[in-house]
Amino acid sequence: MTEREKMLAGELYDARDPELQALRRRARLLIQALNACRDDAEEERAALWRELLPGAGQGLWIEPPFYCDYGCHLCLGDNVFFNFNCVVLDVAPVTIGSNVLFGPAVQLYTATHPLEAEARRSGLEAGKPIIIGDDCWIGGGVVVNPGVVIGARSVIGAGSVVTRDIPSDVFAAGNPCRVIRRLEN
């Protein structure tokens, strides 16, 4: 099994693997070009976004700067909006539904490390996928931790740290993020 296959399977893997380093370098060069691209260069920006995020649906809108590890591990529905300064560590799959809004400085972390110091010293790491359902609104400054699922139509309050799954149709907030109330749809 390759290091990339281990990474995507959620197993411990070596991020120093040449294939993974090349994929990250490719993403960083594309991100650098995107973040430097003039706002009026719409066709160039659209082409760069398609290259970085081949799994994106229609109507993608990202305000730069934007950062991710690979880009190719993101699956985005239609009409996804990322506000300024968002970060997606996509060492595991990140699946985002349609009509999802991200406030500024949202951070999605699939990357994780062993809890035991000896294992961490080995340099191995792992990842757990993140899933965000359709019609969600993730407020500014939210951090979503590895392995979290946020149900459809839910709203996460600004500044929250989402450490566990959030059901559909709720407003949740805090650190750690917890359900505050159900939403009427």
Low-confidence segments, given as residue ranges, are none
Large-scale geometry: globular
Report, as a whole number of angstroms, the end-to-end distance. Answer: 45 Å
Count of spatially separate domains: 1
CATH domain class name:
Mainly Beta
The CATH superfamily turns out to be Hexapeptide repeat proteins
Question: What is the average of the pLDDT values?
Answer: 97
CATH architecture: 3 Solenoid
Structure description:
This protein has 185 residues and is α/β, with parallel strands linked by helices. It has a single domain, classed as Hexapeptide repeat proteins (UDP N-Acetylglucosamine Acyltransferase, domain 1, 3 Solenoid), CATH 2.160.10.10. It is 22% helix and 29% strand. Strand 18 and strand 19 form a beta hairpin. Helix 2 runs antiparallel to helix 3. The chain is globular and about 50 Å long. The termini are far apart. GO terms for molecular function: acyltransferase activity. InterPro entries: Hexapep (IPR001451), Hexapep_transf_CS (IPR018357), LacA-like (IPR039369), Mac_dom (IPR024688), Trimer_LpxA-like_sf (IPR011004).
Quickly describe the structure:
With 185 residues, the protein is an alpha/beta fold. The protein has 4 helices and 19 strands.
Which short descriptors sum up this protein?
22% helix, 185 residues, five-stranded parallel β-sheet, seven-stranded mixed β-sheet, UDP N-Acetylglucosamine Acyltransferase, domain 1
Break the fold down into its secondary structure elements and pairings.
Blueprint: H1 3-8, E1 13-14, H2 18-36, H3 42-52, E2 61-62, E3 66-68, E4 74-76, E5 81-82, E6 86-89, E7 94-96, E8 101-102, E9 107-109, E10 111-112, H4 117-121, E11 124-127, E12 130-132, E13 137-138, E14 143-144, E15 149-150, E16 155-156, E17 161-162, E18 170-174, E19 177-182
Parallel strand pairs: 2-5, 3-6, 4-7, 5-8, 6-9, 7-12, 8-13, 9-14, 12-15, 13-16, 14-17, 16-18
Antiparallel strand pairs: 1-11, 10-11, 18-19
Helix pairs in contact: 2-3
GO molecular function: acyltransferase activity
Organism: Litchfieldella rifensis
EC number: 2.3.1.-
